[in-house]
Design goal:
It comes from Brachypodium distachyon. By secondary structure, this protein is α/β, with parallel strands linked by helices. It has helices at about 10-20, 40-55, and strands spanning about 70, 75, 80-85, 90, 95, 100, 105, 110, 115-119. The chain has a domain at about 40-110. A three-stranded parallel β-sheet has the order 1-4-7, with no helix packed on it. The protein has a three-stranded parallel β-sheet with strand order 2-5-8, with helices on one face.
Length: about 120
């Protein structure tokens, strides 16, 4: 038995809509990836960062570990984020607006949300 209020997307929502001809599709040739679990958001972030290498390389961060943090692989850092020069970041990491990354921090395969502080 399912818990009270449990909804099955395919059986409880999509099938009835399709039966009433109220379900529509949208075809796209653009990049798309389904996210079914929270962990998939990391995979998708990595896919987007990889795509940016080809479509928007100016969005990816770079650093040498001397004047700025060491950047490994595909990385995005929002312009308002503050990253300590001794931090080592990447691959596949995104740092959002106003985030603060402290001295010696090591970030791999992660998404740092707005206003977060990593020490």
């Amino acid at each position: 038995a399912l818990p009270a209020g449990y909804v099955r997307l395919d059986q409880d929502i999509l099938s009835p809509l399709a039966g009433k001809k109220q379900l529509y599709t949208y075809q796209t040739l653009d990049f798309w990836e389904q996210i079914k679990t929270p962990g998939m958001s990391l995979r998708c972030s990595g896919l987007y960062l990889s795509q940016f290498r080809h479509t928007s390389p100016h969005l990816l961060a770079s650093g040498d570990g001397k004047k700025s943090a060491a950047i490994i692989g595909d990385m995005y850092i929002h312009p308002s984020a503050k990253v300590h020069p001794t931090a080592k970041i990447g691959p596949n990491a995104s740092i959002s607006a106003n985030a603060r990354i402290g001295a010696g921090a090591r970030l791999i395969n992660c998404i740092v949300l707005d206003d977060a502080e990593i020490m």
